[in-house]
Amino acid sequence: MDVPAPFVLWQATSELPPITPEIVVVFAVAAVALLLFVTEWFPPDVTAIIVMFVLIVLGPWTQISTEEGISGFSNDATITVLAMLILSSGITRTGAVQRLGERLSAFAGADERRQLLATLAVAGVPSGFINNTPIVTMLMPVISDLAEQGNTSPSKLLIPLSYASMVGGMLTLVGTSTNLVASQVSARLLGHPFSMFEFTQLGVLVFVTGTLYLVAVGTRLIPERVKPNEDFVEEYELEGYLTEVVVDADSPMIGRTIEEAIGESPFDFDVLRLIRDGDTVVEPGSKLEIRAGDLLVVRVGLDTLRRLIVTEGLSVAPAATVTEEELSRDGEERTIAELVVPSWSALVDQTLSTAAFHDRYDATVLALRRGGDILRERMERTPLESGDTLLVQATSDTLNRLATNRDFIVVQEVSDPDYRTSKAPLAVAIVLAVVAVAAIGATDILVAALGGVVAMILVGITKPHEIYDAVEWNVIFLIAGLIPLGIAFEQTGAAALLGAVVAMSADFLPAIGVLWVFYVMTTLVTALVSNSASVILMLPIAIETANRVGSEPFSFVLAVTFAASADFMTPIGYQTNLLVYGPGGYKFTDYFRIGAPLQVILSVVTVLGIAFFWGV
């Protein structure tokens, strides 16, 4: 009896390839890499460099030569991502996206639904042409101020801001670094790099689905972790940590400056104000000497306050309740603001003490929020982590400087931002020219992006010394370090073996079901490692699986690419989720509650869209 051709194809390829020593070594390296990613014993970019080194050293088994081991640094995807980060930084320095956000804010007014729609639009569409991490960085102050002006909880808008930038990044090739990396791997394995608008129709479908979900369902699931127009003192529960004390006549502080009083004391406290004869006459860190009768506004815990009263000769002032309004009075320079520490900040893994935060930035830290936890004591000795939010008291001039410092994201509109607004039209024109030149095929995206960087330097949008600060070097090293692992998977047959194992699901699933399995697998891997890393690891396996079950390999490439940018369920799987974690006051579980239904919906919509547009 004749057997149907598709069945014959599966029978011919269903046997598992032999497990060789080379495959075992590559699996071991990948397993150790996964362990390091999950445990975070080293930063992800350092883990990637360790993997690259090990692959080269074990070359006889991994089949990775020295040239192949370092090839990630000259890879088209790595250089293109670097160039696009510089272009995105150029747009940032002109304030173009902020101005767009402000115009949409005027449209939204105080209506929460219109505010949500404005947030989704201003984050989603530009993210198709500019790297989505800078988009969120630029818009966080705009959206936070929009929420405050409209008496809306910022929690209601910040997760949608992140999610919109994620789905918006799937509109074009240059929306995320993940797309660029996937394009290079697809070119190497299939000879099919992505064109600029290769998957835009699918991206539009995903973006519209995500927008409808957030407007109709997601907004109901997002809790108001931060109450509308909530006082920072209340939000950070500082009522018991801010108080006023009077310097007694016999206090040992008399004759010392505030700096000396804090520096010489064994206790954890800060002086936020000195009030003398009813007037605020000194800011923290002043050289003015303390006198008897001075009123000090201090940040201090209750137990420490008791010790200070005894040892430093202080008395608690009558009605010593301190509010945000009192700390940020009209007409006075110092105000309270939130700063987010991004993953690329030089302060990550440093303490406030070792970083000399107060002296270096002229700002006093009142509290530190890490996810749902708030630290109000012993902050000086706590190593900072990516995503930490610092509540600081600082002058307007200091906040203006910090707004241009890549070590922080200021979560409020500053009074005098140092934007090159006159260059905004040129910056937008250059980015659009890069997209257009690559789209019509006049040159590839790498050359177009590098040309855009040169143009921005020549017209003064980006200064030469600013190029290095514009690049997220941790992303570059992560991509460059893991590209050799993808090559090792392919050359040793490890990808073929895993592909054969996954292809066994075709025994009881149709081809579109196998495609959906790969989408889900990629989202899980992304949650453990990172989006770019999951693309590098999963694409060779996906292509092998597609070939074994007789499916369209490019469809599997797209499923992995879209899934790698769809980690909505945790704050740590995607950079933009982590950026809004602290300012939104979210709990870890909030992301799962809001993101899990969206993840399921988009897995179905994306796979069906791929099947419709490209077939399986």
Walk me through this protein's architecture:
The chain is an alpha+beta fold. It has helices at residues 5-13, 21-39, 44-57, 59-62, 66-69, 76-94, 96-108, 112-124, 132-149, 155-168, 177-190, 200-221, 232-235, 258-264, 302-312, 324-327, 357-361, 396-402, 424-439, 445-458, 467-470, 473-492, 494-503, 511-528, 531-549, 553-564, 575-581, 588-613; strands at 242-247, 269-276, 279-282, 295-300, 314-316, 334-340, 363-370, 373-375, 389-395, 409-410. A hairpin with a 2-residue loop joins strand 2 and strand 3 (279-282). The longest helix has 26 residues, at 588-613. The chain is elongated. It starts with a helix and ends with a helix. Mean pLDDT is 85; it is low at 1-13.
Number of helices: 28
Tertiary shape? elongated
| Strand content bin | 5-15%
Largest sheet: 5 strands, antiparallel
- Overall number of strands: 10
Which residues form runs of ≥5 with pLDDT under 50? 1-13
Structural class computed from helices and strand pairing: alpha+beta
Strand arrangement in the largest pleated sheet: 3-2-4-1-5
Indicate the radius of gyration in whole angstroms. Answer: 27 Å
Helix content class: 55-70%
Mean pLDDT: 85
Q: Give the termini distance in whole angstroms.
A: 28 Å
